[in-house]
Design brief:
The structure holds 2 protein chains of 2 kinds. Chain A has helices at residues 4-7, 13-29, 39-47, 78-85, 140-146, 156-169, 175-181, 192-207; strands spanning 52-53, 57-63, 66-72, 104-107, 110-113, 126-128. Chain A is α+β, with helices and mostly antiparallel strands. Chain A folds into 3 domains: 1-30, no CATH class; 54-130, Ubiquitin-like (UB roll), CATH 3.10.20; 140-207, DNA polymerase, domain 1. Chain A has a 5-stranded mixed β-sheet, with helices on both faces. In chain A, a hairpin with a 2-residue loop joins strand 4 (104-107) and strand 5. The longest helix of chain A is centred in the N-terminal third of the chain and has 17 residues, at 13-29. By secondary structure, chain B is an alpha+beta fold. The longest helix of chain B is centred in the last third of the chain and has 17 residues, at 304-320. The chains are: A alpha+beta, B alpha+beta. The A-B interface holds A 31, 33-38, 41, 44-45, 48, 50-55, 73-75, 77, 96-99, 101, 104, 110-113, 116-118, 120-121, 162, 165-166, 180-186 and B 1-10, 13-14, 17-18, 20-22, 29-30, 33-34, 36-37, 44-46, 48, 50-51, 75, 98-102, 104-105, 231-233. Strand 1 of chain A pairs antiparallel with strand 1 of chain B, so a sheet runs across the interface.
């Protein structure tokens, strides 16, 4: 872990925030997992080739087409593993209660809240975050830029991901379908008008 | 959240064996993970069911009846044409649950077995929250979203599962599977009213999981209507589902079930009796709404639900016969 105080002068704000995030995660993850193990039941399960996993464990996730390995606990959420362990910081941690949408990612092509997904349960599934999306002139990101679809920008990664998921399922959405499709994300700055227009524009641009 | 053991079950058999005392079954996780984060539920072991292939899928059709396995995600349920066409009460309700992301994660079993949203419960005070001087926190406190029926008892929270409402109206059966094998019951019988904080609000025994829900062949017409604060990301305030059969123009049999007014899915026999033998018009639907509200005993802050109940029943009956009069 880096020394945040002494590295402040030489590092940018993002590096500093990343550093403090790791500090917070380590504080939680190093607590010893104290779980009462039911020996008899564990043996019965082992006989059928069912693993009872606890404490620290190594998992491999398929993130944006890459195999990534990390040390996690069963209780680690996918969002925290992506951000704090694998340095995939596109999905944001805001409410951490599946209420805001900032942590939206795609698992097997479906938009889901990564804050409410266990990392262990995501093994063997195809995980995509907005780092893997196109950012060219026919992209969702470009449409957000053109339509001023953001103010502070903290909800934007979630909105772009939800928008991408919507357009992959329904390349030709109506205004009502866009509103319903982006229901799972919240923008406290209130940029919904720009966001909805961006989704409609991106749908047109991607088709051209 | 508290550390736990994790079992990624691959079959129902494995899941049932792994569900020892102190374990929790998890499918989509949208309810359980948030309860664990808030230390409302702190299981020693979590058994993950979403990778159990024999628990996901829909079979049958509206002519013979449908069997929906408990691990079927709501987005897959919504993609089923047979449900959309023949069971609009169920389809409409599922389409209003949560958000697109929630519907991609959540399963029908998890929706039926979710824990109440009562904020005293979610803050760790239990389903019957009492302060140290014996006062009922919900009766004396902020009860704007609580029940208006059965309020003489101690369980004052509103039942949380919106999908239970159309399923009960449609006469669906639930099958539980556990160490002692399978048993089937009406969906309504999945729930009970706890009399203390140590009692479960579910009829399932320890180690049992919900395996499937069977909806009988479609007969007559069915529909749902809900009233809510927000268009997404929220539970209904009051909603209702109706399943009506007709002889000619008049209603020969009716089942009307209401959400948000009791600690159980509330079957309104009064509304059913009021609409039987009549054709569904705005007047007869309003009379059924008024009948449904009789006997309601709201708490200090939820009297609005009585008025809302009348409107919701009226509109549910009109929706069921295809009359959305308030939209024209």
């Amino acid at each position: 872990m880096r020394d945040n105080a002494s590295s402040l002068n030489s590092s940018n704000r993002r590096d500093f925030l990343r550093g403090s995030g790791v500090a917070a995660a380590t504080a939680v993850l190093t607590q010893t997992a104290q779980v009462g193990m039911d020996e008899a039941s564990a043996e019965a399960l082992a006989a059928q080739d069912v693993a009872v996993q606890s404490g620290s464990m190594k998992i491999t996730l398929q993130v944006n087409g890459q195999s990534m390995t990390s040390e996690v606990e069963p209780r680690s959420t996918l969002l925290d593993v992506l951000r704090h362990r694998l340095d995939v910081t596109g999905p944001k941690r805001v409410c951490d209660r599946s209420s805001c949408g900032a942590c939206t990612i795609l698992i097997n092509g479906q938009s889901v809240y990564s804050c409410t997904t266990l990392a262990v349960a995501a093994q063997g599934k195809e995980i995509r975050t907005l780092e893997s999306f196109d950012t060219g002139p026919k992209s969702v990101a470009h449409a957000f830029h053109q339509n001023d679809g953001l103010m502070c920008g903290y909800c934007t990664p979630g909105f772009v991901t939800a928008c991408q998921a919507l357009l992959e399922k329904n390349p030709n959405p109506t205004l009502e379908e866009v509103k319903k499709g982006l229901d799972g994300n919240i923008c406290r700055c209130g940029t919904y008008v720009g966001v909805i227009q961006a989704a409609l524009d991106a749908a047109k641009a991607i088709k051209v | 959240m508290k550390a736990f053991e994790y079992v990624g079950a691959k079959s129902v058999d494995q899941a049932v064996k792994a569900l020892t005392s102190g374990s929790a079954a998890m499918a989509g996780g949208t309810d359980l993970i948030n309860r664990m984060k808030d230390y409302v539920t702190s299981p020693d072991r979590v058994v993950y069911l979403n990778d159990v292939k024999e628990l996901a899928g829909i079979s049958g059709d509206s002519g013979t009846g449908l069997t929906i396995l408990s691990g079927t995600r709501l987005s897959d349920l919504l993609a089923n044409d047979s449900i959309k066409k023949s069971y609009p009460a169920l389809w409409q309700t599922a389409s209003e649950v949560g958000t697109p992301q929630i519907r991609n994660m959540a399963t029908i079993g998890g929706n039926l077995m979710q824990h109440p949203r009562c904020w005293y419960y979610r803050s760790g005070f239990g389903l019957i929250p009492k302060s140290s001087d014996g006062k009922h926190m919900l009766r004396e406190g902020d009860n704007r979203y609580a029940s208006i029926f059965m309020t003489d008892g101690d369980a004052l929270y509103a039942h949380p599962s919106s999908l239970a409402i159309p399923l009960i109206a449609l006469g669906a059966k639930a099958t539980l599977i556990g160490p002692d094998g399978e048993r089937t019951m009406d969906v309504a019988e999945l729930y009970k009213v706890p009399t203390s904080n140590t009692e479960s609000p579910f009829a399932s025994r320890p180690g049992e999981i919900l395996k499937s829900v069977s909806v009988p062949a479609a007969a007559g017409k069915n529909g749902s209507f809900e009233a809510r604060h927000k268009q997404a990301h929220d539970w209904p305030l009051v909603m209702a589902s109706a399943s009506l059969t007709f002889s000619g123009d008049t209603v020969s049999d009716a089942r009307v079930v209401v959400y948000g007014v009791a600690p159980l899915p509330w079957r309104s026999k009064a509304a059913e009796e009021a609409i039987k033998g009549k054709s569904v018009t705005l007047d007869s639907a309003r009379a059924a709404g008024s009948a449904a509200a009789e006997g309601a005993k709201p708490l200090s802050m939820n009297g609005y639900k009585v008025a809302m109940l009348k409107t919701v029943i009226t509109r549910t009956l009109c929706v069921t016969v295809g009359n959305r009069y308030w939209e024209v």
